[in-house]
Amino acid sequence: MRKIAAYICTILMLAACLDKKITYTESPQAKIMLHPNWECEGGLHSKPSGMSVILYNKEAQPEFSDVDNNVDSILITSQQGTKHILLFNQSPSEFGSMHFNDMNCFDKACVVLQKLKLRRRANDLWEENTPLMNEPEPLAVSADTITITKDMVRESFVNNKTYKVDVCPQLINYKFDIYVKIQGFENIRSVEGSISGLAEGCYLSSGEPLHTTISQYLKSNNLVRTRQGDNSEIVNNYIHFNINCFGLPTQKIKKENRKEHDNILKLHFLLRDGKTVFDYSKDVTMLIEENTTNRYLKLKIDKDIPNLPNVSPGGETESGFDAEVLNWEYGGEVEITV
Fold it and tell me: What is the bridge-based pairing of β-strands 222-227 and 332-337?
């Protein structure tokens, strides 16, 4: 009986020694291969020229970061625990329109628009003390949380196993379409302007717009012409602005939370004689429609519209918006770049 007991003890000690042998002699880490799908719905629809990845620990502090021109996959290694991952196109230094702030914290990491360098004229409608912000470049972000288990670490250490994680970077930009009905559109040479009350930036981990607001620059040479029913006569002319932005601040999505003068549209027209200017301003706070699911804003102005004075052209090059409707057969609307 004693021999059997001794034999069992020997086996247990040997097993303990073997277990220690494959228990790690250095910090154990699991291997994770990230595979971004840039062409998924809501993404860039094409591969970027580079990407950035930051791995955060459970306390949301960074423990690994890398920038790579290989946008198909990237290998990260980490110890057991809950991890947060930010992955986005390009590197922060490649974006000229925005700053990346608070990147040392997963929950606070955000982008903030930079001031636009714009040559101003003395008769501009916006004040010198109102900076206008850049239009943000497309930014697609994947914010994911993964759990690295003890078994994953063991498999990577013992069997050199790499775990595949698919991610789908989503655009955090909003598209904003602005349509302004115009009387006397044939007198326009150029138009620019601004709209206030848009979000200054966006949190990367949640995609939520910042609460702070800015005014964003507008410029357009697009004319939308519409008609009604089967009547071929043109009945409406709209100036169309299409911009990227970060939407409205989260607290302003619901119209009941908006206040008068939150969003002011200002337009500055230079007429076709090359010297006459016409300024237009309107409170559009309650006119902006937002679709947060598709990250889309729309503003259409049909009332209290700009009525431009008639002026004589300043020559052939000063003829302004001399657009014609092409292939217009069944009604609806056609957009023309002029």
Answer: antiparallel
HSE-CB for 142 with a 13 A CA cutoff: 28
| Nearest Cα to Cα of residue 290 among 245, 260, 223 | 245
Query: How many other CB atoms are found less than 10 A from the CB of residue 261?
Result: 11
Q: pLDDT tens per residue, the chain (338 residues)?
A: 444 444 444 444 434 443 434 444 468 899 999 999 999 999 999 999 999 999 999 898 999 999 999 999 999 999 999 999 999 999 999 999 999 999 999 999 999 999 987 655 444 544 456 789 989 999 999 999 999 999 999 999 999 999 999 999 999 999 999 999 999 988 999 898 999 999 999 999 999 999 999 999 998 878 787 766 555 666 788 999 999 999 999 999 899 999 999 999 999 999 999 999 999 999 999 999 999 899 999 999 999 999 999 998 876 544 445 444 433 333 345 444 43
Look at residues 211, 268, 277 and name the one whose alpha carbon lies nearest to residue 241. 268
Residue 109 token pair: 């990491």
**Rounded Cα gap, residues 169 and 212, in angstroms:** 25
Total Cβ atoms within 10 A of residue 205: 20
Q: Are 195 and 245 in contact (CB under 8 A)?
A: no
pTM for the whole thing? 0.82
Tokens of 277: 């200017």
Q: Domains in the chain, ordered, with CATH?
A: 27-95+139-171 (2.60.40.10), 174-337 (no CATH)
